[in-house]
Specification:
Elements lengths: L1 H13 L24 E5 L9 H5 L4 E3 L6 E3 L7 H9 L6 E5 H10 L2
Antiparallel strand pairs: 1-4, 2-3
Length: about 110
């Protein structure tokens, strides 16, 4: 576990948190060429009020974007399923959603 934490910390140091698009971090099945998971996590930044709740609960999935102070996903499924679900369920404005990979990619590219 300690080595896995070290690897994760090293990976996070390499990420530019302001420009990362989480669809680029999705694990792809080598055989099918499709994402391993069918649903991805997305924050509607226009609805987000910047409360920091999700980023405090699921710190390996969400962060607070610097310009507008809104939550953003930087690592799809960076935390375990239960932790991410708690972050989603406790969002005071219900702005975190599950979306298919293709929609996630479109939404993140449109945000540029």
């Amino acid at each position: 576990q300690a080595f896995q934490d070290y690897q994760n910390d090293a990976y996070l140091e390499e990420i530019d948190m302001e420009t990362v698009e989480s669809h680029t971090t999705v694990e792809i099945d080598k055989t099918s060429g499709k994402p391993v998971r069918t649903q991805m996590v997305y924050v509607d930044e226009h609805a987000c009020i910047g409360c920091t709740n999700c980023a405090m609960i699921a710190q390996s999935t969400f962060f607070m974007e610097g310009d507008a102070g809104r939550a953003r996903v930087f690592q799809q499924w960076g935390d375990d399923d239960e932790t991410i679900q708690v972050a989603i369920e406790t969002c005071p404005v219900d702005c975190i959603h599950y979306v298919p990979f293709d929609e996630l990619k479109r939404l993140e590219e449109d945000r540029r």
